[in-house]
Amino acid sequence: xxxxNLTEYSQFTLSPLENVGVEVLDFDINxxxxxxxxxxxxxxxxxxxxxxxxxxxxxxxxxIEFSRLFGPLEMHPLKVKTSAEFPELxxxxxxxxxxxxxxxFWHGEEVVGRLDWHMDLHYTGKPNHGxxxxxxxxxxxxxxxxxxxxxxxxxxxxxxxxxxxxxIEVVYKFEMQRVKWRFIDLEGYExxxxxAKKPADIGFPDFDDSVYPAVVTHPISGRKVLEVVEQFLxxxxxxxCAGLSPAEADDLLRELVAHTRKPEFHYWHQWQEGDxxxxxxxxxMHCARGTPPGVQRRINRTTIEGDVQLGxxxxx
Length: 316
Ligand SMILES: [Fe+2]
Description:
CATH architecture: 4-Layer Sandwich
CATH superfamily: Clavaminate synthase-like
Helix content: 10-25%
Bound molecules: fe (ii) ion
Strand content: 25-35%
Mean pLDDT: 95
Shape: globular
Radius of gyration: 19 Å
CATH class: Alpha Beta
Number of strands: 22
CATH topology: Double-stranded beta-helix
Number of helices: 5
């Protein structure tokens, strides 16, 4: 890549990733977090939404300190998944006896931990602000994480579609069983026998439906974000108010989901030891490709609390 593509900040250099997001070069997580470094990191985060750091020597303490630069941290609702020593740390582990609860089949192949495009806590109306993932043990096979920039997806919409979206609100229905999600790709999919069937199976309450404007303005950057993600997507709220029949409203959502699936809005992270990824969950969706059964993988995650109500809840 030519030097022309690099953006120099005073504390680090940014290099564009494939399609969306940037890699942060000349950065050491163990160097002091000075005021100017913090300001520049935040500016880069709001500008690009997806930041990749490589070759970092990271301890759990330092990951937590780094994540706190972007806002207060959230504890994960599932206590069993947090580290006993560091409650801010959420451990994503594959290759052990928990695999059976996240195994499904695609075209007859068993896959552990594959996740559709989603935004974290989107179903509550108050998504997390962001998160940091750090590879502790890299999967020997697969295990990529996908990130999709929904501000760039919005920017690429035609003026006609943007105008149509002005009066549209979109409803998300929290539902454990993937076969009941209306706008995901179900071809060749079979749920595994030990997947959760209802929220109580993983200690979750039932959630009301959440509703978002089809286009949300980012609370900090002011960028417009196409608030359409395939996971839990259910329907347009009162489509007749926008002059649409329910069938036309479904067609519109299908068209928008197809738009968000275009590779030009995606970055796929192939994990290596020492990698860390920070993303803005108010702007970027993410997904996981999963791993074959038995493949060892460990990711440490910290989560930046969302303090803005971007959507609202309505009775399911
Ligand atoms: Fe997630």
